[in-house]
Every structure is written in structure tokens, then in C-alpha cells.
Write a structure and sequence with these properties.
Layout: E1 9-10, E2 16-19, E3 24-29, E4 32-37, E5 43-47, E6 50-54, H1 60-81, E7 84-91, E8 96-100, E9 103-107, E10 114-116, E11 123-128, E12 135-141, H2 144-157, E13 167-170
Antiparallel strand pairs: 1-6, 2-3, 3-4, 5-6, 7-12, 7-13, 8-9, 9-10, 11-12
């Protein structure tokens, strides 16, 4: 039995789950509505205050789907009740982020600003980390996958480099640093020269 799959999904106040026989599930809550298509043979038992995910048999396919279905359903419930957010930090002289309407505009050392259109259901907040004084971008949404996808797209524009650590990183991400060149230019070396 899947340890994750057998745990019921608790439903907070104001969250409703509608499961159809074809595997489609709609979750409604205070933050919005999410829908997803699951395997039609997985059984979703919607009871008072919780949802149980049951598998039709112990075949390998359904054992694999059991925990996955429960996790995805739980993510939907959390999304419509409290929402998801990811925080990115910007490190580098002159690197900054501003908002233009619902768009995000980044200055990342290129010759031009980089505008970012939000994915569906995503909103941006721009601020500053109080401890490190770095500019921050907060990505908010109700779909966990979309929030993660948007964060990955923004981070990829200028991933942190290993020498000075400049770039966009996740809050709390540790960037492994490398040592620079140790020798001075023009020093005595073992190069070929006249004797």
C-alpha cells in the first residue's frame, strides 16, 4: 500500500471537490478553481471534510498512480485554499526588477530591459530582502506547477554564475563558488622565451 496514497486529503473550510466518473476533477476554493484529468480507473471517494484516493487493483500501473494522484489532488486543494509562492533574489550591481502593469521588467546587464509576461493565473510582487538588501521577485499563483515553471523561466534568464555569484537565484539557494585565477598577469611563468 502506498504510504502517501492511503492518507486522506483534508478539505479546509470553503473548499469543494467534484469528481466525475471519467477521471476529471474540479476543485473550488476561496482563491479560485482548478481542474485536472486523472486516470479514470482511480477512485476518488469524496466524504465530509476529506477525499480518499483508492486504486482498483494492486497492478503495477495503479500502485504507481496511487501516491501521484493523491499528491496532485492535495496540491490542488492547497492551491485553491492558501495558494503558492516562490521568491527569487537578484544579485549583481545594476541588476533590478520593476513592474509595468502586470508585466515584470528586468535589468540584468544586457543592453536592453527584459519584459516578462506572466503565465495564466500568475502575479508578480517586487520588493527587497530586509537582511541582504537584494531585490526580490515573488511569484504568486494557485497552480503549483505553473508557479514553479514561471520561476524557472525567470531564473534561466541569468542563472547565478560561480565566480561572483551574480544572477537570479531562488531564496535560500546556495550557489557553489569557484576560486578565480590565482596568478598575476605578467608574472614570471614557465613560458617559452629566448635564452
Amino acid at each position: 500500500m502506498s504510504r502517501i496514497g492511503k492518507m486522506p486529503v483534508p478539505l479546509p473550510a470553503g473548499v469543494q471537490v467534484q469528481a466525475a466518473g471519467d477521471g476529471s476533477v474540479v476543485v473550488k476554493g476561496p482563491k479560485g478553481t482548478l481542474s485536472r484529468q486523472f486516470n479514470s480507473r482511480m477512485v476518488l471517494d469524496v466524504a465530509e471534510g476529506q477525499v480518499e484516493v483508492k486504486r482498483p487493483s494492486d497492478d503495477k500501473e495503479f500502485r504507481a498512480l496511487h501516491g501521484l494522484t493523491r499528491s496532485l489532488l492535495n496540491n490542488m486543494v492547497i492551491g485553491v485554499s492558501t495558494g503558492y509562492k516562490k521568491v527569487l533574489e537578484i544579485e549583481g550591481v545594476g541588476y533590478r526588477a520593476t513592474k509595468d502593469g502586470n508585466k515584470l521588467v528586468l535589468a540584468l546587464g544586457f543592453s536592453h530591459p527584459v519584459p516578462i509576461e506572466p503565465l495564466e493565473g500568475i502575479s508578480f510582487d517586487v520588493g527587497q530582502d530586509t537582511a541582504t538588501r537584494r531585490p526580490t521577485i515573488t511569484i504568486n499563483g494557485i497552480d503549483k506547477e505553473t508557479v514553479g515553471q514561471q520561476a524557472a523561466v525567470i531564473r534561466k534568464l541569468r542563472a547565478p554564475e560561480p565566480y561572483k555569484g551574480k544572477g537570479i537565484r531562488y531564496a535560500g539557494e546556495i550557489v557553489r563558488r569557484k576560486a578565480g585565477k590565482s596568478g598575476k598577469a605578467g608574472g614570471k611563468g614557465g613560458g617559452k622565451g629566448k635564452k
